[in-house]
Amino acid sequence: MPKPKSFTAWLKTHADQRTAIGDLARDVSTDPDWPSRKGRQGQLDYLEERGAIDAAIETLERAWTQYEAYRAAQTDT
């Protein structure tokens, strides 16, 4: 069974979507300072430190919820 993608790798697969998560994915893809290995809290802290709007933080939370569902589906197979 293949190892599930990291959150950042999973998120970047959504860059072609015309949704808030797609917008976040495009932003992350072009941000050289994105803390890809810092986990959920580190990424939330990163957005907050940079003055991200509430909608961006909510989008990251929603993306993590979807990512966790993806990971659960990967381990259930």
UniProtKB/TrEMBL annotation:
Transmembrane segments: none annotated. Residues 6-68 form the YozE SAM-like domain. Coiled coil: none annotated. This is YozE SAM-like domain-containing protein. The lineage of its organism: Bacteria, Bacillati, Actinomycetota, Actinomycetes, Kitasatosporales.
